[in-house]
Amino acid sequence: QVQLVESGGGSVEAGESLTLSCGYSGGTFSTTSMGWFRQTPGKEREFVAGVAWNGRMPAYADSVLGRFTIFKDDAKNTLYLEMNSLKPEDTAVYYCSDYEFWGQGTQVTVSS
C-alpha cells in the first residue's frame, strides 16, 4: 500500500519561504501524478498544486500561482512544494496525495 509522509512545515513570518517534502513508498512514484492540498479548521480541503507523473504540466491554485512551485524527484521518491512570499492566508495543514492515498499532513503557520 502506498504511504506518504510530509515534512518541512513550520512557523514563519510573512514574506519568508518554506519547502515541503513528501516521501513516497509502496508504489511506483515515477509513474504517479501527485498533488498538494491544504486545509484550515472549518473549511474543506483545497487543491494547491499538482504535477503529472512525468513532472510536466504543473497546475496551481490561483491563490498560489507565481509563489509556489511543485516538483518531483523520482530518484528520491519525493515530491516537493517550494513556497515563497508566504502570506498569513497560507496558514494551513498541507497534505500530499497521489489522488488516492493521503499523508498525515504538516502544519504551516505564517504570521504577519
Task: Please explain how this structure is put together.
The chain has 112 residues and is mainly β. The chain has a 6-stranded mixed sheet, with no helix packed on it. It has strands spanning 3-7, 10-13, 18-25, 34-39, 46-51, 59-60, 68-73, 78-83, 92-97, 106-111. It starts with a strand and ends with a strand. The chain has no helices and 10 strands. The radius of gyration is 13 Å and the shape is globular.
Compact description:
The protein has 112 residues and is mainly beta. It has no helices and ten strands.
Q: Report the uncertain regions.
A: none
Structural class: mainly beta
Q: Which of globular, elongated, flat, extended, rod-shaped describes the shape?
A: globular
Strand content: over 45%
Helix content bin: under 10%
Lateral strand order in the biggest sheet = 2-10-9-4-5-6
For the sheet with most strands, the description reads: 6 strands, mixed
State mean pLDDT (0 to 100 scale): 97
The number of distinct β-strands equals: 10
Distance, first to last CA? 40 Å
Gyration radius, in Å? 13 Å
Count, helices: 0
From N to C, what is the helix and strand string? EEEEEEEEEE
Chain-wise SSE layout:
Layout lengths: L2 E5 L2 E4 L4 E8 L8 E6 L6 E6 L7 E2 L7 E6 L4 E6 L8 E6 L8 E6 L1
Name the descriptors.
112 residues; 10 strands; four-stranded antiparallel β-sheet; mainly beta
